[in-house]
Amino acid sequence: MTTDNQWSAQPASQQAFSTRSSFIVNLKEFSPQNWNNFVLAYTPMIRFWIRRKNVPSSLEDDVLQDTFRSICISIGRFDLNESRGSFRGWLRTIAERRVADCLRNLPPEQDLPPHDLESLPSPTERSDQEIAAEQAANEEVKARALELVRQSTTDRTWQMFWHSTIDGIPTSQIAKQFGVSNAAVRVAKQRVTKRLKDLMIGDTESTD
Description:
Blueprint: H1 21-29, H2 32-51, H3 60-74, H4 87-104, H5 114-118, H6 128-151, H7 155-165, H8 171-178, H9 182-198
Helix pairs in contact: 2-3, 2-6, 3-4, 7-8, 7-9, 8-9
């Protein structure tokens, strides 16, 4: 029997995005704000993993809560090691185990065929609809992370980051618009980018 801080290694190409170790360290410290940000950001993805295993809709929220409870209990033992797998893979393993627990405990009239409890479809067996649903969940996670960072960032800093990273406006032009130096624009961009990376988004950097 495996525990919740054991998981299968995944090739880097299968890691949709990686979570920086600083974010995991913050979770281990378990401040209310860190945990709340984690729940808000990751709920869409964890809910997707639960739904794809055909959990009855009436039990979906219970499994979601059980998953977060297990994460909370196990996070202190999590050791980020790329050779063993990603943080996202670890979360998925926990979610699937809580789903299996739920399905095993269903009353006979709600029970599912045994193969639904034991078999996990490989990525090559996924339908186009499922792939699209997972991509949508990923995008919602990213959107939530962006909003969480925006809420904790001054409007001026956020605008400089957005103009530079999203709009692709040259640093010198942004500096002139806000009456600051080029270095100040870069610092603003780096601050927001770091916060986004800490919340799992690793594809927000760009070059001037």
